[in-house]
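Possible regression after last week's pipeline update?

I re-ran a chain I had predicted before the update to compare outputs. Posting the input and the new output here so someone can diff against the archived version. Not blocking, just want to make sure nothing changed silently.
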Amino acid sequence: MRTLLQLKNIHKAYGLQVIFNDVSFTIAENQKIGVIGRNGSGKSTLCKIITGHEEQDSGTVQKSAIFRLAYLEQHDPYKLDETVVDFLMRYTGKEPWQCGKIAARFKITNEMLSETIGVLSGGFRTRVKLVSMLLRDPNLLILDEPTNYLDLRTLILLEEFLRDFRGGFLIVSHDREFLIRTCKETLEIENGSCTLYPRDVEEYLLYKEEQRRLKECYNKKITAKKKQLQTFIDRFGAKNTKASQAQSFKKKMAKMKTIDVGHQLDNVHIKIPNVETSNLMAFSCDELAIGYPDYQVASSINMQFKRGAHIAILGDNGQGKTTFMRTIADDLETKSGSYKWGHNLKIGYYAQHVLLSLNPKDDVYTHLSNKAQNFASHQAILNLAGSFLFKGDDVQKKVSVLSGGEKARLCLAGLLLSKSDVLLLDEPTNHLDFETAESLGKALKKFHGTIMFISHDRTFVNMLATEIVEVKDGAILSYPGNYEDYVYRIETRFHNELSAEKTIKQKPKSVKTHNKPDRKILKRLKLEIGKLNSRIKEIQTRFEGHKKEWEEIRDIFMNDSSSWSVERSLRYEYLGKVIKEEEDLWLELLEKAEEINKKIDNFTN
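New output (post-update):
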């Protein structure tokens, strides 16, 4: 592969903080590189040095003659009142037909090209930025946190494009799943240095942990040997017969060096003050309609959740996820209907606009201490502050000097210390590196309280969600399956749509018979049927549990009319809907399993 870019002996510092210390590496054509590292390690700085938005203090960035760069800007280069096509033409200098051709790859229709950008959802605005980037015909892409605020469909579309892209790219992302699906190599930025590893992020972390273990074993052997030699020197160093040998051992000890192990990458530990467990109802709503004074977003919302449920609110951007969360957080008035929280529950709410509630005169520790009240000790507050990258003197920084990302992390840390029974979280991982995001997911998974959250980070959702709510086409409904079922259905539907749009003209090929089955295909089919059977079993278990509860309530109503209550009646209706949805999904997956089993039979017979 031809070299596109060479970084040689790059040094960069902000005051006393060294970001890069003598960093050198090469990027060649078609390299697909995922960039990882802690917040503040220098990921965005590296992107800016390559794009020319920042200067290195020393060292060189050499670009080849064939180098053509495009990058996904974190700020918005468009104006909200200009149309999509006008922006694309202005920004890239391309003709309308060229803009439309590339836009179609991201499902931006001709009608949408004439729309003003201000009316588009966040996901489609990101698609417009991606189109503007590709119209420059690059052979190297720089994408700094491209998945922030992307809905699942747009994320799948971006992944499809990146897998087919013929050039190379550097991607900074906190979504481990996204990096695994798109990147073949990993660049880690840590302690002023860069390590480029020729495998994906999961393999790199396993390799790094193995290297760490080997270094620790070596250091233990060296320490034990030095101790043994020192014992000999202490015992016999003063004796004439052993003095020369003792001196020899001293020289030998001086040459025996331990290896610097460094800091373990996954060392973030977040501990959240827990709350009491209960089987009572946490939330219910009856014919709830949500929206704004001039229009309605969704209606006829009926659902219930028990305390301790961890509910992911999913759906395309612009469908109403945040509107729903703002409504149940008492930040928006209902259009009609009602909702209620369980008795005496304390509700904690995290969203981007809560940053405005911070007192600019407070320092980091004061804010966290006020939120914690008496629920956490001084050391527990410092520990959580450190987990969110406020370490040492950082806890004395005033809110007024914090960046937007730092304020977001501060609000999130304060919420976790508040000992709320219910946590409402709107995109909690957007300003976190993926190690901190995953540590947050692990901590929240152990949390006994109720969590409702919006996130597009698949690793985080898969780790945390026990129930799924889908927001789509003016309706908000409980989804009968788990998150893997949800993603599988969206991906299948999306790929079917893409296949239907492609008109591939091919001559029919003669069918070749193989005496031996293709082992790779057979292995993949067997893995797929294994996963599918596990999902079928899980849904069947959940279906049977819900049906048993529904029958128990039905029997109570039939045998004791005085036992009727609004809450029990709503639960009965809700379970009836869920049972029907779970049964439909169960049958759908059984049909899919039957198709795969037929393919396996064709191979083996």
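Follow-up from reviewer: compared with the archived run. Confidence is low (pLDDT under 50) at residues 503-517. Marking as no regression found.
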